[in-house]
């Protein structure tokens, strides 16, 4: 107890910061999710769990939740495999490697909204360059192109592609950092024992990447689950709820329907889902333990 | 390692907590500090164009010169953000004193607004067009000051119609026929531009459903799922199915589609007064003309939209300052240039007369007597509006017109 008091001046600012930017918003979100808030923002009193019942009872809730799972699994998996390959490449010595390594950072450094908008405009019928290209090489017969972002399926697929694109740099660099900690002797020993390149990679290098990969996956899961801008831009004009994830649905509650109470309730659900996923992941993979 | 673990835990929680941050929408911005002597008015307005901020700054400068004891703070937001900003500010107990927006009935119902006659002089109040005032009332009390208005008309690409040998339509059947002829020109040309995407689906819906004799209801009840409305919705489907429109009508937003019209690839599309200016600046060579909106049987009709100014009560101590601001704002020398610069229609009688010989606005001003408005005084209109934006575009898909209307009505009834 005495130690704690002594430590307080040092940890105080950090505790205050966490309370202000993490605990307070969470508390407010929980509070709002149990209130009846009018469209103009007035609090009309508590309603218990009615907001949660309304959100879960919404006829598209389960499809949206399922789509969120697909979104997270596909994006994270593609990102991971892409990054493993890319990191292996960037770990080899070749002329111009430094330039290539820098180029990989670009999607990370650019604003996500900007990157998505570039792709979105490229996909527009009539003037998008991706559409023009596909028309020119004869893959699309309609002269104005295909409305990629006008159909739930294709818009969602393109959104996933953009999400993988912007997630690659961080993941690649995490794995690259891991690759550089793999001792050269282990690889050399494998080679002397006559192991092929593929065998060396899967049996010697990959196991040593375990902690790098598992941390990268953990952070990606949280990031991708909470990603709004890409889907918002790519699927924003699609009517109905056939391309929504939990995040875009929260946004629709808040922005379009101005139901802050329902948006908060769905946020709480999303928050619990993320915590659940992370808890299970940490439990099963134990990413933060030594190999 | 233990330390690393804790760090990882904190990181995970922090990242996960962004969910909370994005969703709770808390954080009223400041800007309401009172100056020592006199009153400060907070003004929250949307951006109609790149010029909006400058126009307001001019108004405020002129006003402050005449009323040195009142200071006006201006906050300009995009239309996309406007409604969440106002909701957040009200929730944070920091409502602006004067707000320029669309729907006001929800605020009136929450008793946040001054009745208009308490914050304007009798002269200013009497200068509004009666039809606009009727549209700004809740239970007989006016809560919104009609600010600027727009009506719709059919923009026709004369060159395309001539090439296709099509007539300018007055009824739906003629529209279908003309649009199909234009579509058959090929080369990516579409006959009729039908934007049912989320941006402004409610407007295209009104043009069709009301043009067939339907309505969205009145101040007492929102009625979407009616036989009259169904007729319009089914004709929309017919237009799409017979290839008279551009592809993917259900998910096409209005502004980008009108860009295509300006580029000369669309035969006919519904446009607004500012569309005239857009064509003039982007493609002055476009051969086009403006016509009344085709309806089922050719009856004249247009969709009118008025944006309103409203005065929030807050602490109730700024009534006088607000009154002097509104009276200044609606004097012809201030009001007419403002409306003209933004390319919209005025809501006062005197300004309408003054602008009557403006060639670009004439077709729209003509339509105003037949204008019908959204039932925006009904508190449920907000729900209906968002339901149209979210669901009406499904007409472009496999859903039947009946199912779409039923779904929208159900959403409205939920509130």
From TrEMBL, chain A:
It is found in: Cell membrane. It is a multi-pass membrane protein. Residues 65-281 form the ABC transmembrane type-1 domain. Pfam families: BPD_transp_1 (PF00528). Belongs to the binding-protein-dependent transport system permease family. This is Multiple sugar transport system permease protein. SUPFAM superfamilies: MetI-like. InterPro entries: ABC_transporter_permease (IPR051393), MetI-like (IPR000515), MetI-like_sf (IPR035906). PANTHER family: ABC TRANSPORTER PERMEASE PROTEIN, INNER MEMBRANE ABC TRANSPORTER PERMEASE PROTEIN YCJO. Its main location: membrane. Keywords: Cell membrane, Membrane, Sugar transport, Transmembrane, Transmembrane helix, Transport. It comes from Promicromonospora iranensis. The keyword Membrane applies. The chain crosses the membrane at residues 12-33, 45-62, 68-90, 102-123, 155-176, 262-282.
UniProtKB/TrEMBL annotation, chain B:
It holds the Pfam family SBP_bac_1. Keywords: Signal, Sugar transport, Transport. The keyword Signal applies. SUPFAM superfamilies: Periplasmic binding protein-like II. The keyword Secreted does not apply. PANTHER family: MALTOSE-BINDING PERIPLASMIC PROTEIN (PTHR30061), MALTOSE_MALTODEXTRIN-BINDING PERIPLASMIC PROTEIN (PTHR30061:SF50). Belongs to the bacterial solute-binding protein 1 family. This is Multiple sugar transport system substrate-binding protein. The lineage of its organism: Bacteria, Bacillati, Actinomycetota, Actinomycetes, Micrococcales.
